Amino acid sequence: MTALVQVAELTKTYQTGDVTFQALRGISLEITSGDFVAVMGQSGSGKSTLLHILGGLDEPTSGSVQVGEHRLDKLNQTELAIFRRNRVGFIFQFFNLVENLNVRANIELPALLSNSISKKQIRQHSTELLERLGISDQAGKHPWELSGGQQQRVAIARAFINSPALLLADEPTGNLDSASGDDVLKILGEFNQQGQTILMVTHSAAAAASASYVLFIRDGLLVDRMPGGSEKAIARRLVDLR
Ligand SMILES: Nc1ncnc2c1ncn2[C@@H]1O[C@H](COP(=O)(O)OP(=O)(O)OP(=O)(O)O)[C@@H](O)[C@H]1O
Ligand SMILES: [Mg+2]
Fold it and tell me: What pTM was estimated for this model as a whole?
């Protein structure tokens, strides 16, 4: 299997006024195509920072970051924007849908922006995703008319519209009741079964249990790795790592 993601000695330092803060302090990792990786760690440990850098939303301070054929640490802002739009899909805790667009328009937006396939193909793909996510009858509604679980389904469809090589999810179940959260995990699991590579940040051992393996971050460093599968074992490891 080939590595889709290769990260070596990645650091990220934030400078706020006179204060510097090292959010990532030398992370190296490899993600194989088809992996479903969960990332766990305490608040402030650097999980979102890592996810943002892998998605081209933020730039590393030092180190190398390769995603597919792209060396992200060598791309300029314009190249990063193109990478972000075409190669990765994002799912966030608070859905981040565009409130004045209906469900279908939200899903199609990244494809229209990327301009790489025809409008007809985009329509076809959004129809497939609406069906696949069980929200076809919500297509004409606006985000505020939907439950949290439905909104997250729309966000998932939007994340997949450009067929991303890598799906990045930052606490995708963090703002959902447990039934809707389980639903989202089931959907992600199904996409992964069909070969989708996923990196998911989560505080939930139950969510991390759906992943093939779990990476633990503490103070900007990778400190451990274990297989997914057992919620109990993951919860125990989290306690041990505190
Ligand atoms: N833009 C920024 N400017 C300054 N500091 C930042 C910035 N973004 C993050 N940080 C700091 O970097 C550290 C890591 O932040 P990060 O968001 O990656 O944590 P996290 O592990 O995702 O936490 P949480 O579980 O609360 O989401 C935190 O101390 C945070 O305050
Ligand atoms: Mg975070």
Answer: 0.95
